[in-house]
Design brief:
This protein has a four-stranded antiparallel sheet. The chain has three helices and eight strands; from the N terminus they run ββαββββαβαβ. The chain starts with 32 loop residues before the first strand and ends in a 23-residue tail after the last strand. With 153 residues, it is mainly β.
Length: 153
C-alpha cells in the first residue's frame, strides 16, 4: 500500500503469526536494515534499507544474509514507481522465485502464484526493521581501565 515507505497503517496490530494482515507506521523510525521472514522463520533474508528502497526494475539488490546463505549475495527484485504490488523481495532472482516459494514480500495484497506458494505453508510473512549497532571494543578497559575518551579525529 505504501511500497515499504512506512506510512501505511491498517488492520489491528498483532504478532508474527496473526490471522490477519496489519501494519504500523515506521517512516519516522531510525533504521538501516530490513528483515523479511516467513511466519515460521524457515525462510528469511536481511537487506540494507538502501538495497530495498529506491526505484529499480529487475535490479540486482544486495542481500546481506539469508536462510540459504550466511554470506552477502545479490538477487533481482522489483520496486517500480507505478506498480502498487512492488516491491517484490525474494531470496533468489524474482523470475525463478515465482512459483517456487522464494518470494518473501509483495505489496498491496498481491497474490497469485507469488503468494500461494509460500504464505499458506509458512504461516504468512513479516517485515522487521532495525538500526544495526556496530559493536566496538571498549578501549577504556585497557591496562586496568580508567580511561576517558576526549577526542576522536
Amino acid at each position: 500500500k505504501d511500497q515499504l515507505r512506512g506510512t501505511a497503517k491498517y488492520g489491528k496490530k498483532g504478532g508474527p503469526l496473526s490471522s490477519h494482515a496489519w501494519s504500523i507506521p515506521f517512516a519516522h523510525s531510525k533504521f538501516d536494515e530490513f528483515l523479511f521472514a516467513t511466519g515460521d522463520g524457515k525462510k528469511w533474508l536481511i537487506a540494507k534499507k538502501k538495497s530495498v528502497l529506491g526505484w529499480y526494475s529487475n535490479g540486482q539488490r544486495e542481500i546481506l544474509k539469508s536462510s540459504t546463505s550466511a554470506k552477502p549475495y545479490k538477487a533481482r527484485w522489483y520496486r517500480r514507481h507505478r506498480n502498487k504490488e512492488d516491491p517484490w523481495v525474494s531470496i533468489v532472482d524474482h523470475g525463478p522465485a515465482r512459483g517456487k516459494g522464494g518470494i518473501l514480500y509483495g505489496e498491496n495484497n498481491a497474490g497469485g502464484v507469488h503468494a500461494s506458494t509460500i504464505l499458506p505453508m509458512h504461516m504468512g510473512a513479516n517485515v522487521y526493521i532495525r538500526q544495526k549497532v556496530v559493536k566496538v571494543p571498549d578501549m577504556r578497559k585497557i591496562d586496568g581501565g580508567g580511561w576517558r575518551l576526549v577526542r576522536h579525529v
